[in-house]
Amino acid sequence: MSGEGEAITLGQARGPSAVGRLRVGGVPRSALAIYAHPDDADVSCGGTLATWAKAGCQVTLVVCTKGEKGTTSPSVDPEALAAQRASEMAAAAKVLGVADLRALGYPDGEVENDRELRRKLVRVVREVRPEVVLCPDPTAFVFGERYVNHRDHRVVGAAALDAVAPAAGRPAYFPEAGAPHEVPEVLLSGTLQPTVWVEVADGLAAKVEAVGCHRSQLGDEGAWVGEVVRRRAGEEGRAAGLSAAEAFRQVLLSW
Question: 250: which strand partners?
Fold first, then answer.
């Protein structure tokens, strides 16, 4: 991959983790995933989204940037790449069972956690009224010796958390953005401090297919993707006694 999307091998350098425990509460009725680049959600939580969607959850996905800088080739036209990535994103979302895909269209690498982004995210939260929000862990910066977390991941994760707590649930914040909604739970992906695991056996095949949709990031030699995705899911699963899982840092905002 280009290095823009969250590395598929992310998590190998987390170090000792908490004792594996499953996320409780079953399948939510609605979930909102907020991510930076067109492939981020598929890599980060695609198995969870697919598993939940298959079980009847209404999944909304917000992608903040166009991903037009996600290449190492100077000959690639950024706008052509943005169009290709939008098509890949739509195909992947369909595979996962995403019911509502929203692209905010920010320039790649330039998204800011400012008032306007928070207002947009608060509006989505209040419209969707999710039981669970999934987003990147903004505190995760350097993973081991081989991966520096992309700035967009950290910025979008921080903006998502700021939109959820406290803004979306307080009427004085962005009153024009709709009726307040308190989000009960946030799951942070790409974290150095995983605390809960979600079983994704039912959604693993869809995750493999969704990640494979991002040909612009995989090149012509993408056959390895399925093997890597399945291996990572198996590694995560072993922490919680499962055959396949995705790990998150859980934040419970209501009891």
Answer: 187
Structural tokens at position 18: 């908490």
pLDDT of residue 27: 97
With beta carbons less than 8 A apart as the criterion, state whether 244 and 201 touch: yes
The single residue listed with the structure tokens 């291996």 is 231
Taking each helix axis as running N to C, give the angle between helix 151-164 and helix 115-128, from 0 to 180 degrees, rounded to the nearest 10.
60
CA distance 161 to 136: 9
d(CA 180, CA 168): 6
For the chain, the structural domain boundaries read 30-252
d(CA 81, CA 31): 29
Place of tokens 């590395």: 7
8 A C-beta contact, residue 99 and residue 57: no
Percent of the chain with pLDDT strictly greater than 70 = 91
Strand-pair category, 142-143 with 147-148: antiparallel
**pLDDT at res. 121:** 98
Asked if the model's pLDDT at residue 1 lies above 60, the reply is no
Helices (H), ranges, 55-107: 78-96
Res 224 pLDDT > 90: no
157 vs 218: which has the higher pLDDT: 157
What is the arithmetic mean of pLDDT over 189-214? 97
Q: What is the rounded CA–CA span in Å between residue 152 and residue 245?
A: 25
Domain 30-252 has CATH 3.40.50.10320: yes
Residue 207, amino acid:
K
**Cβ count near 87 (within 10 Å):** 14
Q: Give the pLDDT confidence score for residue 20 in this predicted structure.
A: 74
Strand partners for 105: none
Per the DSSP assignment, residues forming a β-bridge with 142 are 148
